[in-house]
């Protein structure tokens, strides 16, 4: 009678999330080296030759101190989310982008993107914008498959005051215009 095959146990890198034997192909191999020396010395014997034991201890101490300080720092660590396989997904910034698009030489549409990131319900916001500016306003899916509000007419400069007064959670510093293809702060 044949033996039952046993499952293979895979050692995953604590730094990049890849299996330890694939760390050298990842984007953070330099950061992974101290962890590999300490936890998987048989996979990369060249790393042991290159570094002394003292250097490995220093680097592993630095690695441990950075992992502890990651929880306390809130600037760039919150913006980046690590996905399986070492891929990085950036968190969306909370900002409102207002863009004026002209069509048929006279008509214009003001597009408001990012209002939903502040917890504003877009259907309610489009109703308020339509009533305030006496125009048509609707929630539309944009080219990036995210919902945005299209308001008929050029109301781009009056809209900043209305947004900051109506929704107190939205600071004026988070509102941007797109002019000539460049993002310009509204304030």
Automatic annotation (TrEMBL):
Basic and acidic residues bias (residue ranges): 47-60
Matches recorded under InterPro entries: DENR/SUI1_TIF (IPR050318), DENR_C (IPR046447), DENR_eukaryotes (IPR005873), DENR_N (IPR048517), SUI1 (IPR001950), SUI1_dom_sf (IPR036877)
GO biological process: formation of translation preinitiation complex; translation reinitiation
Residue span of region Disordered: 47-86
Keywords (A to Z) from UniProt: Cytoplasm, Ribonucleoprotein, Ribosomal protein
Ranges annotated as biased composition (Low complexity): 65-75
Subunit and partners: Interacts with the 40S ribosomal subunit.
UniProt record similarity statement: Belongs to the DENR family.
Protein name, as recorded: Translation machinery-associated protein 22
Taxonomic lineage from the root: Eukaryota, Viridiplantae, Streptophyta, Embryophyta, Tracheophyta
């Amino acid at each position: 009678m044949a033996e039952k095959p046993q499952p293979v146990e895979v050692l995953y890198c604590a730094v990049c999330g890849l299996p330890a034997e694939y760390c050298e192909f990842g984007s953070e191999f330099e950061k992974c080296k101290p962890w590999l020396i300490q936890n998987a010395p048989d996979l990369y014997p060249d790393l042991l030759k290159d570094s002394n034991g003292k250097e490995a201890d220093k680097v592993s101490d630095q690695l441990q101190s950075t992992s502890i300080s990651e929880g306390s720092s809130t600037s760039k660590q919150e913006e980046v989310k690590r996905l399986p396989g070492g891929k990085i997904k950036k968190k969306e910034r909370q900002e409102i982008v207002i863009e004026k698009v002209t069509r048929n030489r006279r008509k214009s549409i003001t597009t408001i993107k990012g209002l939903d990131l502040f917890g504003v319900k877009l259907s309610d916001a489009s109703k308020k914008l339509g009533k305030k500016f006496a125009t048509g306003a609707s929630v539309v899916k944009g080219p990036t498959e995210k919902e945005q509000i299209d308001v008929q007419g050029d109301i781009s400069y009056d809209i900043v005051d209305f947004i900051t007064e109506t929704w107190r959670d939205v600071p004026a510093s988070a509102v941007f215009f797109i002019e000539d293809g460049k993002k310009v702060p509204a304030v």
